[in-house]
Amino acid sequence: MATEADAEADLVVWPDCAGSGAADDALAAVLAAAGRAWALPSEPVCCGARAADVGQAADAEARLAHGRDGVAGARRVVVADPHCARRLRVDAGDDRVATVAELLPELVDALPLRATGERAVWHDPCWLARGLGVTAAPRRVIAAVTGRPPLEAWPHPDRTGCTGAGMGLPATHPAAARAMAEGCRRDLAAADADVVVTGCADAGATLAAGELTERQVDLVAFVANRLAP
């Protein structure tokens, strides 16, 4: 059960402000199934990453400072969105911060998972793979859930397709963003997987179009949906 963060909190979850909240609900289900106690920040938090992307430096720094106050007592902070995680861990130098993709390998052995045998293809979000260098952890999670390594749509994890969803690109360069999204969806569809898994709300929303609409899922929801009753 989640509680408000305090000085004794071992694990605090920084919610996903970019998504619908579904990833937060899925993470809550996974943590409960693994028997892990966790807490929410003491107040609503924002890291200011989106403001920083569009040059609103003062607003971004104010949001970051206020957000960090909300998790000041936590020993570990797990962040749902990799963009926010990079902002906190790299830009702000907070070494307590981990992404959900890095937490899940610690939990999978304790989870009551249904063996599915699905063919899953993993899409490396830019902020996770190139911003934080996290590529192996989500692949380990998918392999643990499905019993097989994920399919690969590109030859190398740090050169995977970009959805064009970040850095304000859809607003500033919409044609380029659309072209990037279409190319990324095309490459993932060509992998001929049963499910397309990613770990970023913006990327997921962009991928969930056309023939991928029914097959795209966030990494933590992918795990939560395969918990045994």
**Helicity range:** 40-55%
From the spread of the alpha carbons, the general shape counts as globular
User: What is the radius of gyration?
Assistant: 17 Å
* H/I helix tally: 11
- Structural class estimated from helices and strands: alpha/beta
Number of strands: 8
Question: How many domain regions?
Answer: 2
Distance between the termini: 18 Å
Largest sheet: 3 strands, parallel
Please trace the helix and strand order, writing H or E for each element: EEHEHHEHEHEHHHHEHEH
- Read across the widest sheet, the strand sequence of neighbours is 2-4-5
Mean pLDDT: 89
Share of β-strand residues = 5-15%
Low-confidence region ranges: none
Structure overview:
This protein is α/β, with parallel strands linked by helices and 229 residues long. It has two domains: 2-105, Rossmann fold; 112-224. The chain is 44% helix and 11% strand. The protein contains eleven helices and eight strands. The protein has helices at residues 22-33, 49-53, 57-69, 82-91, 100-107, 126-132, 136-146, 169-172, 174-190, 201-207, 219-224; strands spanning 2-4, 12-14, 38-40, 77-79, 97-99, 120-122, 195-198, 216-218. The strands form three sheets. The chain has a three-stranded parallel β-sheet. Helix 10 (201-207) links the parallel strand 7 and strand 8 (216-218). Helix 4 (82-91) packs parallel to helix 6 and helix 5 (100-107) crosses helix 7. The protein is globular and about 45 Å long. It starts with a strand and ends in a 5-residue tail after the last helix.
